């Protein structure tokens, strides 16, 4: 069963979102609409749980960031009325995003984003979130970081991947500096542009993702900023796909793995991140990294011992020289990426995730809740 209104881009959900954020008062009509849709979703979830004979739900960010308020309300009411187990995986809380701070639904945010229910196993992705989650809800939570399948190394680039440079208009003697993120303000892409300008080398900044759900204003700024510095920025999101193939114009499509394989340097100058998925991807694909020391990096990633070129909020001549010394020394690059891969395997592998999940699932209260749900359903 597909639940169209469970998607945050459904027109009815979009209409609600526009009327409850950026204001502090909501109309009776919007309140009724929220609960009408939540009731429908609740009934549909009940049916799915019964039809599939589910023992537990893993809720990915739907009880975290209020992109779909009726869905969050529906999930919580469903959990309250059944004994089904639940693991809520939290990535982005509303208090971490300015656009959600002024709102007309503080009661619903308190109810569902996240819900302060002891029987839900709450999982966050960094230590700062864990402290703030517990302070706001009075509940404990688990910290499980992002992970990659380090037990299965990526294959070397093939001939298809090597066509990427020519397809996007790059020559072999140019440095491909990859920005593997969405184009949003907190990614600090200006720093990557400044780096390329100050390196004084033939290079292009390649951005692999779209702007996403935060509008196009920042992308316009990045285009203007690049023109000011005379830095060539390539936006290639329309050439990236989950699988290789061709677009409607017959142009080759590439996977993210293909793009990483051709990068000379990965740029990760973020000012804020919930964790750092693109950082781990660069480690997994064995690419050297230029990185800002954002808060979560300093607290949860840097202590693991990764070898990267870091800067502290702004570029210095020393940082630029460190990058140049790196890209000019293939042996240093090889040493760096192999070391980083081993660190990633130790701290951020699927095996680490499996151990953490097993600990959660095997807690006596969780086993009891699953057994109780089975008895209620029989």
Note the topology.
Elements: H1 11-20, H2 28-52, E1 56-60, H3 69-81, E2 85-89, H4 106-112, E3 121-124, H5 127-137, E4 142-143, H6 159-162, H7 164-167, E5 175-179, H8 189-199, E6 203-207, H9 217-229, E7 233-235, E8 245-246, E9 252-253, H10 256-262, E10 265-268, H11 277-284, E11 289-292, H12 295-301, E12 309-311, H13 317-327, H14 330-347, H15 350-361, H16 364-377
Parallel strand pairs: 1-2, 2-3, 3-4, 5-6, 5-10, 6-7, 10-11, 11-12
Antiparallel strand pairs: 8-9
Give a summary of the structure in a few sentences.
With 378 residues, the chain is α/β, with parallel strands linked by helices. Helix content is 46%, strand content 12%.
């Amino acid at each position: 069963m597909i639940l169209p209104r469970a998607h945050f881009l459904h027109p009815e959900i979009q209409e609600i979102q526009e009327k409850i954020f950026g204001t502090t008062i909501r109309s009776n009509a919007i309140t009724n609409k929220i609960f009408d849709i939540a009731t429908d979703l609740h009934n549909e979830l009940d049916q799915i749980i019964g039809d599939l004979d589910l023992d537990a739900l893993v809720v990915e960010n739907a009880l975290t960031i209020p992109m779909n308020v009726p869905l969050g309300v529906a999930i919580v009411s469903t959990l309250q009325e059944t004994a089904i187990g639940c693991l809520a995986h939290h990535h982005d809380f509303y208090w971490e995003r300015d656009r959600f701070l002024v709102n007309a639904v503080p009661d619903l945010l308190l109810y569902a984003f996240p819900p302060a229910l002891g029987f839900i196993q709450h999982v966050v992705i960094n230590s700062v979130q864990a402290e703030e989650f517990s302070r706001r809800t009075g509940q404990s939570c688990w910290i499980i970081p992002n992970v990659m399948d380090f037990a299965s190394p990526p294959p070397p680039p093939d001939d298809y991947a090597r066509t990427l440079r020519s397809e996007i208009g790059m020559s072999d003697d140019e440095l491909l500096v990859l920005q593997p993120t969405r184009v949003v303000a907190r990614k600090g892409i200006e720093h990557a542009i400044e780096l390329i300008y100050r390196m004084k080398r033939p290079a292009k900044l390649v951005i692999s993702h779209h702007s996403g759900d935060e509008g196009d204003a920042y992308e316009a700024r990045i285009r203007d900023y690049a023109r000011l510095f005379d830095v060539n920025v390539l936006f290639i999101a329309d050439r990236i796909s989950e699988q290789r193939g061709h677009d409607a114009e017959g142009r080759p499509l590439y996977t993210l793995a293909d793009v990483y394989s051709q990068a000379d340097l990965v740029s990760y100058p973020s000012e804020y991140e919930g964790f750092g998925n693109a950082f781990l991807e660069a480690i997994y694909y064995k690419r050297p990294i230029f990185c800002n020391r954002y808060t979560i990096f300093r607290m949860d990633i840097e202590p693991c011992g990764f070898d990267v070129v870091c800067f502290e909020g702004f570029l210095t001549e020393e940082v630029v020289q460190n990058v140049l010394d790196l890209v000019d020394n293939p042996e240093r690059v090889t040493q760096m990426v192999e070391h980083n891969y081993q660190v990633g395997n130790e701290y951020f592998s699927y095996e680490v995730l499996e151990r953490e999940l097993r600990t959660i699932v095997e807690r006596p209260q969780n086993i009891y809740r699953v057994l109780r749900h089975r008895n209620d359903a029989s």
